[in-house]
Amino acid sequence: MPQKLPALPVSESLFENLRLKQYLYVDKTAYHPMLRNAGKFIFCSRPRRFGKSLTVSTLDAFFSGKTDLFRRLAAEELMESPAFVPRPVIRLDMSEPADSDTKEILEEKLAEQLKDNAERHGVSLRGSDSSGAFSSLLRDVNKSTGQTVVLLIDEYDAPIIKLIEREPLVYDEQLLAETRKIIRDFYSKIKSAENRIDFLSSPVSPNFQGWAYFPSSITW
Under 8 Å CB-to-CB from 213, ≥6 apart: which residues? Predict the structure, then answer.
């Protein structure tokens, strides 16, 4: 009797769900150590629908030390070795704050993501705005765990790109300027917290493919 193949993971972008439901998975976890050793700040550009969110989810599980999800995968051997040290992961999906109609809504959506990460690591979120809260989150997670942080940012430029791509091709210049300032101030905290960060990866969807280092500071 022919062997039944696993089901295809159509529209499934969560690695944990994919593995628990035993969907078909093409093992690319052998590249995780290579990615980690390529540099501290990694910018990953890939076309749309190319598995970027799944990659972020897989890296989250990998750095968090969820070994059970990697059984019979290439990364399992590394994760079970004494050399492997799990890290606290802060994970942001910047496509969620995109399409904010006011700067207040953008700040609120950023705060929601930061709050989710704070609860994940059992710390309190502090700060008068999103950039201050982000800075305190990086500091407090590092301090409470005693470990440098892994920072995963999906679609880091989405809040800007979504405004520029609005139809018709006319956008609110004031909202764009306000959004740029909020996002610039937000990401500037990465540079000041560099000693608290073990690894940072950010996949995006540009019109080209390639690898480059994620800038230590961002200027729009």
Answer: 39, 41, 42, 43
The CATH class, in words, for 27-213 is alpha beta
Provide the 10 A C-beta neighbour count for residue 83.
6
Which tops the pLDDT comparison, 5 or 108? 108
- CB distance 161 to 98 below 8 Å: yes
CA distances from residue 25 to 28, 51, 60, 73, 158 in whole angstroms, order as listed:
9, 12, 17, 10, 27
Q: How many residues does the chain have?
A: 220
**What sections of 21-157 are H helices per DSSP?**
31-38, 52-63, 75-79, 103-120, 130-145
Total-model pTM: 0.83
Query: Looking at the predicted structure, is the pLDDT value of residue 34 above 90?
Result: no
**Both structure tokens of 81:** 């070795």
Percent of the chain residues topping a pLDDT of 90: 48
Instruction: Say what the pLDDT of residue 91 is.
Output: 95
Largest Cα separation within the chain, whole Å, is 65
R_g of the chain, CA atoms, integer Å: 18
Range in 41-50, 52-61, 149-158 the model is least confident about: 41-50
What are the residue boundaries of the structural domains of the chain, listed by start? Answer: 27-213
